[in-house]
Amino acid sequence: MQERLTIRKKEGFQGQRAIIIPKRIISTQCEKNEIISPLYITDIGYYPKAKFHYRERSQGADQHILIYCIEGKGTVKIGKTVYSIHADDFLIIPSHTPHQYAADPNDPWTIYWIHFKGCTSASIVDLALARFNGHKGFVNYNEERIHLFKNLYDTLERGYKSDNLVYINMSLWHYLTTFIFMDKVVAADESVGTQLIDKAIDFMSKKTEQVITLEDIAKTVNLSTAHFSSIFKKKTGFSPIEYFNHLKVQKACQYLLFSDLRVKEVAYKLGINDPYYFSRLFSKVMGTSPNEYRSRSNPTNSKPTALRAKININQV
Fold this sequence. Notes:
The chain is of the alpha+beta class. The protein has 2 domains: 17-187, Regulatory protein AraC (Jelly Rolls, Sandwich); 192-315, Arc Repressor Mutant, subunit A (Orthogonal Bundle), CATH 1.10.10.60. It contains 13 helices and 10 strands. The protein has helices at 23-30, 121-132, 143-157, 162-180, 182-185, 192-206, 214-220, 225-236, 240-258, 263-269, 275-286, 290-297, 305-315, and strands spanning 17-20, 40-47, 54-57, 64-71, 74-78, 81-85, 89-93, 99-103, 110-117, 136-138. The strands form 2 sheets. A 6-stranded antiparallel beta sheet has the order 1-2-9-4-7-10. The protein has a 4-stranded antiparallel beta sheet with strand order 3-8-5-6, with no helix packed on it. It is elongated and about 70 Å long.
């Protein structure tokens, strides 16, 4: 079945901007570039107050689509689901998914939009759909996000040389992140759960050289251990004690790199009295033993202490 594509205003929209990257550029400079091929832009545009804007793709598009509305209203139908779109809403439409969308005739939307592809793009879209339980999400307006989009567009407008393509497609990861992980972008957007987890992590970060229990951590956020553990694992993917051990190992890495402490002394510094347990924990997290990590990451550690001190002084 041939795709039906309709535009209800032939002359376009006043102030509109759009770039369609030539297929030859996509095939020769994006698909074959190891840096770009995981995720890359194929089309990008900005439609202000786009009255009569309408698209219908009965077979979907070859690319994934992100539509971000900053003012006005519109309607998007994906499959059999209809979404009402208002300012600060965004839509992610997976590739090859039938859809149609239209600006509100009385209060037409202003939208930023990007079509993107790449070997990791489907996984990124799946992540977004899972986080928002559907195709539609909401973000608080953020000037940095708008600036980032304009930077993508302006760079592309200067041509398709290799540096431009690498830059804008590496930046695309950041742009998509501002939607998928919006709670990390604007502190005011943080959910109560995220605030509690961050508070608990701050507490653990300050206690890496001590012994603390799950109860100690849960008390800092006034939750029961069971409830706290459930929230923490949902937000981070790790149990609180696992996460705390990761922080201890992270601290251990700093001691191994920037001090002359022996491995067992590093273990004691972290409140671990059993050096063998420490070595097993370190190896489990880092995939290498403490001694191997030190020698591989900092070759100067094989030199005499006095010489290392001299080198460190000269490098300050």
